[in-house]
Amino acid sequence: MPSITSQYLARYRRITADAGSGTLLPVTGAQRRFALVRSLDPAGRPDVVPMFFAFPYGTVDPARLRAAARGLASRHTALRSRPAVVRGTPVLHVGEPDIPVLRPVPAPGERPADTLRRALASWDPQGPPLRLFLVRDEEGRTEDLLAVALDHAVCDGRSLARIADELGAAYTEHPAGLRVTPEETEAERDAYREAVLLQLAAEERADTPDAAAYWADRLRAVRAHAPLPRPERVAAGALPSGSAEARLPAHDGGVPFPGLLDACRAAADALYGPGHVVPLGYPWGGRPVGAEPVVGCFLNTVVFPAATGHDSTPEATADAWWDDLDRADMPFDAVVAAARAAGTGWNGALDGLLTVDDDSRRPPLRLAGAEGREVHVDGRPVRGPFAVSVTQGAGIRLRMVWDRAVLDDATAHRAFDALTRALRPVPHPAG
User: Fold this and answer.
1) For 67-106, what is each residue's pLDDT tens digit?
2) Fewer beta carbons under 10 A from the terminal one: N or C of the chain?
């Protein structure tokens, strides 16, 4: 039987055979996952990835910012392409680089962060994949708060760093807008299409019967253990999500990834109790060999079955993780299909997400000499029950967010405490 990737490529070639593939581009397995998640959402919401920056009051010029964003989208195919489904087949539809700078109006007494949170919650799924939101603190007159927000289907972590860098350069060096020739635009579109096709070829090679059997066995005991979201669980006036943050001393050489997985297992134990196998997802991968370093989404989501109430040794976790990585290119939807074909009750829902970043990879956003301070705007809706982000560098920045329609704050804070304890460096004995 043809693999899911082979079937997808066949459908894509059929729908583009007559009209050509100039405006309809194929999508990676990672992008297919986001299309699936969006289709299952009652409101059709995409996953939105925002970066928030605080600038000194009055320093951000909206017109100049829009010109910079338009030039950026002219240069990068993914930033002017909207996810779409044509005859049941997910694609990217290439459009015009019309990137808005939205100026949401604060409600009386509303803080700029609250205004941004409200604006992002009203994201129109039919709009462009890159949008900028600017809120000026007219009351305190202390800062401008800027959100650079993207549909996750067109970006990954490596893309975010590049977007921040190039947006700042375009704003600073080209006040009237970055000029991109039609030839440059077409060449980048060809490079983007080639990168996606190389990625799909790698996924097709990875989508084998042996890999399917491996994941079916690995995920045999997995179930989604969080209760279904119920809005009435959120107290009146409360934000839809809670959060906690800690800063820990750095580990020598950083925390090994299996150690982060074991820490998330400890959090899941506190959230769901012992005796479960909880599906945790984490992004993994990169641009395929031979591809240009295009902006886009090339990170697969790999599933780690975390057994709660189970004292796994670091060596056992590491061994299992290395075995997983040998099959990590098998696309997420194919992994779910393999698990379901083996009779599991798992539908692909993830109870937890883990993302890891290096603080040296994300450059600050500089706009004509003004450096934006990256800030967090808490309380935004989260897709899963809980998510953990770890930033490693001179220290460890640890954040956890949770859906209050699923998890109560007291339980979530206990889980965060368990996560933090698991990541604190073990002191060396004296002498």
Assistant:
1) 999 999 999 999 999 988 888 899 999 999 989 999 999 8
2) C
Whole-model pTM: value is 0.91
| Listed residue (379, 407, 403) closest to 50, CA to CA | 379
> What is the Cα–Cα distance from 421 to 356, expressed in whole angstroms?
18
Cα separation, 176 vs 67, in Å, equals: 6
112-125 pLDDT per residue, tens? 999 999 999 999 88
For 161-197, letters b (16+ CB in 10 Å) and e give bbbbebbbbbbeeeeebbebeeeebeebbeebbebbb
Instruction: Report the distance separating Cα 213 and Cα 77, nearest Å.
Output: 37
Q: Residue 311: enclosing H or E segment and its boundaries?
A: none
The residue count for the chain: 431
Give the whole-angstrom CA distance, residue 425 versus residue 321.
21
**Helix segments in 21-61, DSSP class H:** 29-40
In the chain, count H helices and then E strands.
11, 16
The sign of the dihedral angle between the CA atoms of 169, 170, 174, 180 is: positive
